[in-house]
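INFO batch 0412 | record 1 of 1 | parsing
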Amino acid sequence: MMREHGFAARLREWRQRRGWSQLDLAARADISQRHLSFLELARAAPSRDMVLRLATALDIPLRQHNAMLLAAGFAPVWQETDLGAPELAEVRHAIDFILAQQEPFPAVAVDRHWNLLKANDGAVRLVEFLVGPLAPDAKVNLADALVGPDVLRPFLLNWADVVSYFIRSVEADAAADGRSETAALLERLLAYEGVRPLLKAAAASVIAGPVLPMHFRKGEVSLQLFTTIATLGTPQDITLQELRIESFFPMNRETALVLRGWAAKK
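INFO prediction complete | emitting tokens
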């Protein structure tokens, strides 16, 4: 977790997270190594533009741009707008369009920490088949639903393989964004029964096929799905940068027929 501290230490910590030398970062930011050294030692104070230049060179999230600005004594420049706000109407329309285009197959929009923001009918049908209808306005975290013991795990035949891969992605998120919330999510997932021993396994399973599917089974119904994750290409808002759209696709003809059949009954 990134500790709360001044700009100099924060800059040095991000550079070390990236595994770069001062010379590496100085070259990427087009400044002298001597200047960068002075900034890291707090012997020189950065300008607002220098903070943004270094944050961009470090390729850190917009939320951390703001944190670095605040640490240097400047006001944040990036907004965090509620997804339901009027100014994001066109983006919401785009998200709804993507979710609708995925029908009858499932698709969801989630935030950085896998809290469910939007779901298409295909996703609702899949969840209702596996675990039953959700309470109206229920808050759903897909990471907990996947990794925890009582929601998807009983129906996910290759839970160990899927969760091993997923936990590694959350670890990468925690390393990339430096947020206490992401670190807390990772610790919460690791605390679920069987997860830490799973990650300590000597070797990963060899998966036959081009992608790792999620293989669900309930009763006589077998579903094999793989996913894609899309993000906005040029976000200028923290909420939008942290938004992900996950689309589920059938891995075989049998799965496609089941999902299309459910849609036809509605």
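INFO post-check: The chain has 13 helices and five strands.
INFO record closed
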